[in-house]
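User: Show me sequence and structure for the first protein, then do the same for the second.

Assistant: Starting with the first protein.
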Amino acid sequence: MESVSRRTAMIGAIGVAGAAVVGCSTEPPTQSSAPPATNPGAGEATSATPSATPTQDTTPRWPLTGKVLDDPEDAKRIAVIVKVPDNKGEHPQIGLDAADIVYVQLDGYPAAVGQSGTRLVPIYHSKYADSVNPVRSVRPVDVPMLAPITGIIGNTGGFGWVLKYFAKFTDYLEINKNYMATKGTGSYSILSNRVRVLNGQTYYDRAVAAHPAKLAKQTKKFSDGPQQNYFPWAATDEEVSTEVSGKEASFISVPWKRADTYNMSYTYSAKKKRYLRSMPWGKHVLADGTQVSCDNVLVIKAKQVFGRISAKGKINANYTGHDEPIHDIVNSKGTFYYAHQGKYVTGTWTKGDVQELFQFTLADGTPLKMAPGQTFIELPDKAAKITVKA
């Protein structure tokens, strides 16, 4: 059994990890007046012929998957985000296959020193998983990574300065409905088969499960759902960037540790028309035996910093207190890879302030157009060597 640090141990009734957030509201999000189910990001869609007249897509779509909405009112539901640990001892997981988007981020240490594992951030909106397990604490990158998505985050707390940072963005994200704050609501439960005992001490760090449908009822905010598309969805299959100019990509490997090791990989299945995900030790398999898969793979390379974020949003890498892994994505840019149905394209991503969307531009200067579906997003270090095989 692996060793337990103060970062990983949730002792007794998980009271240590159940810290509450002190709210500090900001100005309302700029996208709040936008219609919830329209597709503003897909207007000026890129056609197969660059010189062709762009088309306007007014099709109602789910904002986090781009899939067509039968009834726009259905999108007026709260997005539920859950923090899920991803190290080997915390597998198998439950509920990832129901998420619209799954982010892969650093766990607790910088990849540069070769110690880090990964943490997952599944986002549920078009449908809710019955249960999501395990559940752990928030990270500072969650704020700029998720915004301008509005939603509630299932979590077990966070370090003090991180919670104060989150408190500045309560118009976007609700994090104070953690395990301890929602007892008796059915928002969380303890899976008895995942409780562990080490040296006579009981640990619940792998046993907490979140229940998104119940958790969504714990906030009165965000009742109109996400207010804009998170990605630039293509209006038609022919306009998807990988169909227009993609190269073959049957296999993609994304390293997370020093010297380009500890790789997450995606293998394209022509039969399923999806990418099958693997961990460094083998297939990424859920508790029910299902291998994790997705329609889209998006790799966003960004500098990884180990420190804290100041009151003004500046990264302080010389902080001597409790450091946290930070992905430098605010007012920044870098390289991205996007893969769909066995093909990929590359280009440059940019992001402005915390609450602004990522923007993706292909190498030829045209905007990225993504296919509707479930997306996995990897956030490796800026220097990571991404391997793509035909």
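Switching to the second protein now.
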Amino acid sequence: MERPSIAIIDDYQSLALSQADWSSIAARADITVFTKPWRDEDEVADKLAPFSIIVLLRERTAFPARLIERLPNLKMIAMTGNRTSTLDLAACAARGIVVSHTEATPSFSTPELAFALMLACARSLPRAHANAAAGRWQEGLPLGVTLAGKRLGIVGLGRLGSRVAHYGKAFDMDVVAWSTNLTDEKAGGQGVKRVDKHTLFETSDVISVHLGLSERSRAIIGAPEFQAMKQGAIFVNTSRGALVDDAALLAALRSGRIVAGLDVFDVEPLPASHPLTTLPNAVLTPHLGFVVAESFTNFYTQSVQNILAYLDGTPIRVSVA
């Protein structure tokens, strides 16, 4: 019987094989690791066409139906995370491709990064580091601000937004929230005041975005919201780049009215030539919200379990469309 061929893709930090014990799979299948982002969909189809099993790292490479149809040998996908907007599950089902997921990890990493970005913006930490490393000390640095006593506006008070609210209260911030379905009761249950969208953007000193991406929420934050923001307000997005109108964000940053801490972008990886990379009032991180040791150990350990179960003919944690 021909040995299965397994592709582990999007392993940008070359960590996949060190975060779990793959020896039981290596004894039964051939494993290839891809560490670089793809140039385009044609390259994905060309490189992955020979493989029967693909291990995805959450929402990095999109797998729409048209790509799935170009992978004739694909029999199983091991998906990290328990849900994704970038894999067409219906197309997989139509082809008879088994999709197994991993269980969710505790929701600490992204809220913690959101707060790190708030602090980095409030105290100009990247510029301060550059100054200290270059011997310029405090020369030319903007004056920092404290978070205590400021208003934190949270866009989306779900699992992640609620934890950010908890952190905000620990920092003695006045926390308010808005989303299309948020009720006074739900907000009150988190010790947060619900306000309308305009009020949140107009009155908050710091705004943190924690919405899921859907057609309804795409570009939900645009020019009217940025124009309403206070001079010097901080805008943080660790959710999805497409929630924000890119041109409106760039205009607000170029005007110098706001500061932004961004972990997500409409196009990822962010091109080196992107205008955001030149702006001194933008703090950028390369989509690190879920990228922590605890999450990766869980992702890859359970992916190993999922692949072994599939090879044994008894798939587990199967995702359905």
